[in-house]
Design goal:
This protein is of the alpha+beta class. The chain contains 6 helices and 7 strands, in the order αββββααβααββα. It has a 3-stranded mixed sheet with strand order 1-2-5. A two-stranded antiparallel sheet has the order 3-4. Strand 6 and strand 7 form a beta hairpin. The relative contact order is 0.14.
């Protein structure tokens, strides 16, 4: 078997549909892995895919080859690399379902003890006001590069709750 840290044959590589789902973070809800929109590897370019694909294993040591990614469920449902032996794959949901699931997605996200710092956290947290308007999100990065997420109700949200 080929090493997971070097390029595969062109035939194997041709199976990839370049959907980018394996590059996105997801959280598990009710046995489903729901993709967190806008939270992906720093080397993933929207509409471009992996910007370091040829040498991704050197430049992004956290990147998973398709074989372990399959076993871990890090591929999308229906991915050509899925063997059927791995965990259920990641899925993107429609915007309406995402909005309905968001409170639970947020709780699951906050429960991750040590999220990987190799994702687009600042950009993602910056967009959360659109998805989670009653809360202020904060991202803390320490000197070792580990991150922590915090979420606090906005003042106006707390006032509305008191007046209700």
């Amino acid at each position: 078997m080929a090493s997971f840290r070097r390029a595969d044959t062109p035939e194997y590589e041709a199976k990839c549909e370049r959907c980018g789902i394996s590059c996105h973070a997801a959280v598990v809800l009710d046995g489903r892995q729901i993709v967190l929109e806008g939270l992906h590897c720093t080397f993933f370019g929207e509409g471009v895919g992996c910007t370091v694909y040829a040498d991704r294993f050197e430049r992004a040591p956290w990147c998973l080859h398709s074989l372990p990614a399959d076993t871990m469920g890090a591929l999308r449902e229906g991915c050509p690399y899925q063997s059927g032996r791995g965990a259920r794959g990641k899925e993107r949901v429609e915007p309406e379902e995402y909005r309905v699931l968001w409170p639970r997605l947020a709780e699951a996200l906050l429960a991750i003890p040590s999220p990987t710092p190799h994702f687009t956290w600042p950009k993602f947290v910056g967009r959360l006001a659109d998805v989670d308007p009653d809360f202020r999100w904060k991202l803390e990065t320490n000197v070792t590069g580990s991150i922590r997420l915090h979420r606090k109700k906005k003042l106006w949200t707390r006032v509305k709750e008191i007046l209700a």
